[in-house]
Structures are given as structure tokens and as C-alpha cells.
Design brief:
single chain; mainly alpha; elongated
Length: 57
């Protein structure tokens, strides 16, 4: 097993995530859309479960 060691000139933060250049309104819009889509899917799932549990025996 070969371990990779960083060079001595590499800063300690090099392995961490760097800030992205696209931190503008488009990223905020995508996050809002994905949040809304997630909430809608949860609602559909709960409605489906309620419908399945409600059926007559």
C-alpha cells in the first residue's frame, strides 16, 4: 500500500474544500428549488402511505 504524502510547500488547507466561484444567486436558487422538491416528494410519500392505510379491508 503506497501512501501519498503532500509536498512540504503544500498548505495544510489544500485538502479541504475551497470556496467556489459560483456563490451567487444561482446557487441560492438551486438550493431553494431542491428544498421545495424534497418537501413536495415527502408530501407525496405521506399521501401515498395514508391512501394505502385507508383502503378498506
Amino acid at each position: 500500500m503506497n501512501a501519498v504524502t503532500p509536498a512540504a510547500s503544500t498548505p495544510p488547507e489544500a485538502g479541504r474544500l475551497a470556496p467556489q466561484a459560483d456563490d451567487g444567486p444561482s446557487v441560492e436558487r438551486v438550493q431553494r428549488v431542491s428544498l421545495g422538491a424534497g418537501i413536495a416528494l415527502i408530501g407525496l410519500g405521506l399521501g401515498f402511505l395514508a391512501f394505502r392505510l385507508r383502503r378498506p379491508n
